[in-house]
Amino acid sequence: MGYNEKERAFIEWYPRGYGVGFKVKQRIFETQTEYQRLEIYETEGFGKLLVLDGTVQLVEVGEESYHEALVHPVMLAHPNPRRVLVIGGGDGGTLREVLRHKTVEKATMVEIDEGVVEASYLYLDVASELLDRLIKKEEPRGELIIGDGVRYLKETDERFDVIIVDSTDPVGPAKLLFSEEFYRSAYEKLNERGLYITQAGSVYLFTNELLDAYRAMKKVFDRVYYFSFPVIGYASPWSFLVGVKGDIDFRKVDVERGRELELYYYDPERHETLFQMPKYVRDLLERA
Fold first, then answer.
1. Catalytic residue positions, numbered
2. Averaged pLDDT, 166-181
3. Which domains does the chain have, with CATH numbers?
4. pLDDT tens track for 198-209
5. Is residue 149 a known part of a binding site?
6. Model pLDDT for residues 182-200, shown as the tens digit of each residue
7. Residue 166, annotated as binding a ligand
8. 168 annotated ligand-binding residue
């Protein structure tokens, strides 16, 4: 896994020998943060590539294919999302998409690794202007907190309309963010009508992790939905799980608000297509 200098390529290897790779021009930055190894590469065709502990987080050209799918379905399904919490997402892309919604009065991002925020601000063309305002505390509707999202959610007195978890894959240290205990904390901190969303890994290659997270969420939320989306740079299709508190129907979104956003990847007018899932995976989920 990683950078092959001879081939001038970066490859992330998934289970069973499946790989996703990019031809790269050069590695422009690398460091060991307090929590993980961080690398940034200049690719041949997709702009800069952000890598954490050997796993692809995003490429500049196409990162919206992830951030739009993570943010806008839940934001448009909620009738009036005013207060939003983002856990993770240190590159700023998720918060950038959240703040495109005019209804949002306050959005808080809790990122454990300050090194990710700093590197994204300095090197990536994703949300550098937003990160600059957050760092300087000049963003009127946004707040950046460097800290443990699990602890923050457990201890905060605030309540949210939407909680978005933009974490690394549901394996290793990030497993805490996919635990029943964490889901209960999230449910408690949602308002009476609220939505929770998390990415849940590759449909084909992290199927067991998807099933585990789905089972845990079913024990906590009033209803749980699953969907998938093709994400550039990942072993797609990529899965997402949505937990509902209250009487919100995630199968329906506000198309008019969606049109105002002029999105590039996610199409609110074809929201129903999100729910397409390979038959055997759907069968496994339904049995769960």
1. 166
2. 80
3. 2-59 (2.30.140.10), 64-287 (3.40.50.150)
4. 999 999 999 999
5. yes
6. 999 999 999 999 999 999 9
7. yes
8. yes
